[in-house]
Design brief:
By secondary structure, this protein is mostly helical. It is built from 18 helices and no strands.
């Protein structure tokens, strides 16, 4: 029997009245997620690079103090790679021990989910049903992840991707919240030419943007430069729309560029690349293009398909135009993916930052669809639950294998 429009509206009214119950369900599923994430973390010991970074690197002596970490990272910058900030952070966590690392990893999964939700919210105003979107963020992080173990649970991977992406997204949030958006026609005080943005300045941002910008730039070879470009584009948009460019924007942009330069020009990068067998230019280009295709059509296939689906639903069927901030997030995801063609190695875990940028757009567009058509709330929520279940299945499968059940 087909569902009539009258019956559908009854369901919508019922859903609106039961929003609190859906929020409670989301909170319960978040608790389940946190429990699973912590248990899996406790089953994955320090391994591989973790064991090496727990030493001074140039000797087998264990790292015991901040001065040891600085000494190790100076050697690392000169002899192995430029990610001094991320690997310095890794060594701090390794000193704290496995139990503390398990707790921190679990907390940072929630923090990153929250930052993604906040970054998404800039496109549609104040976030409603925050626990629902928080669950969506956590579920998408796990369900769309090309390699959840190596990017979120392996300690070296967590430092390079999970932890550092929190700072990257916070940096982008500072800029994207300043992007002027056209108010929808029909909304109170709407004006077709009005692109003003009444955003209050974040307290003390001129001070704390300094370490945040340096850390953001000195993070990953693809995400650091991407953040710098986005910060510049935000200022260009403000100039073109008559907005105000604040001092901290220039400060953050310059320092993020400086951090990116320090990450890329590290002598250790050239030492490491010299160990890779040289191939012809055409063969190298083919392999780089192959890696890019693997990232798009294999590692991030689920994320790309989910993003494509919500873009088609929101723009084609709902007629909701892309916001300026969403365009910048899409551009950032494209740049962070494309920049890896300059790298001789593009592992699946390196798509983590690109995935997070796409998740921001997925959540933002979903919220806009729900705002436009309330009847889409339940189908979209169930869609997020399916992706969440996929992530829980992956974690459950791993745990079952560790316990010898399968």
């Amino acid at each position: 029997m087909s569902l009539t429009f009258s019956g559908l509206h009854h369901i919508i009214d019922f859903m609106e009245k039961k929003t609190d119950k859906i929020t409670l369900i989301s909170l319960f599923l978040l608790a389940v997620t946190v429990l699973f994430v912590y248990i899996i973390n406790s089953k994955i010991p320090f391994m591989m690079d973790d064991l090496w970074y727990s030493t001074l690197l140039y000797s087998n002596e264990p790292v015991r103090s901040l001065s040891d970490i600085i000494s190790a990272q100076v050697w690392h910058w000169n002899n192995w790679g430029g990610r001094s900030m991320t690997h310095g952070l890794l060594q701090i966590i390794l000193i704290m021990g496995e139990r503390a690392a398990d707790i921190l990893n679990t907390i940072f999964v929630l923090i990153l989910s929250a930052v993604i939700t906040l970054t998404s919210s800039i496109s549609f105003g104040k976030v409603r049903r925050f626990p629902v979107y928080l669950l969506a963020g956590a579920g998408l992080l796990l369900g769309l992840n090309a390699n959840w173990k190596m990017s979120m649970f392996w300690e070296a991977g967590a430092a390079n991707y999970l932890y550092i992406t929190v700072f990257i997204m916070l940096f982008l949030l500072c800029y994207l919240r300043e992007v002027p958006e056209k108010k929808p026609l029909g909304e109170k005080n709407a004006d077709p030419a009005d692109t003003s943005s009444a955003i209050s300045q974040l307290p003390g941002i001129a001070v704390w943007i300094i370490p945040l910008a340096i850390l953001t730039g000195w993070s990953n070879e693809n995400m650091g430069p991407t953040c710098f470009v986005i910060s510049v584009l935000v200022m260009i948009i403000l100039l073109r729309t008559g907005g105000r460019i604040r001092f901290w924007m220039i400060e953050g942009s310059v320092l993020s560029l400086a951090g990116s330069v320090m990450c890329i020009i590290a002598p250790g990068n050239f030492v490491r690349s010299s160990q890779i067998p040289k191939k012809g230019a055409l063969w190298t280009l083919f392999l780089r293009c192959y890696s890019e295709c693997c990232a798009a059509f294999k590692f991030q296939l689920y994320a790309v398909l989910t993003l494509a689906a919500i873009l088609i639903i929101s723009t084609v069927f709902c007629g909701i135009k892309l916001k300026n901030s969403e365009k910048l997030l899409l551009l950032a995801s494209l740049m962070s993916w494309g920049a890896m063609i300059l790298s001789p190695h593009y592992p699946d875990r390196a798509t983590f930052g690109t995935m997070c940028l796409m998740i921001c757009v997925i959540i933002s567009r979903s919220a806009l669809v729900i705002k436009e058509k309330k009847e889409a709330y339940l189908p979209l929520y169930l869609g997020f639950i399916i992706i969440w279940l996929k992530g829980m299945f992956d974690l459950g499968e791993f745990l079952s294998a560790v316990l010898g059940w399968i």
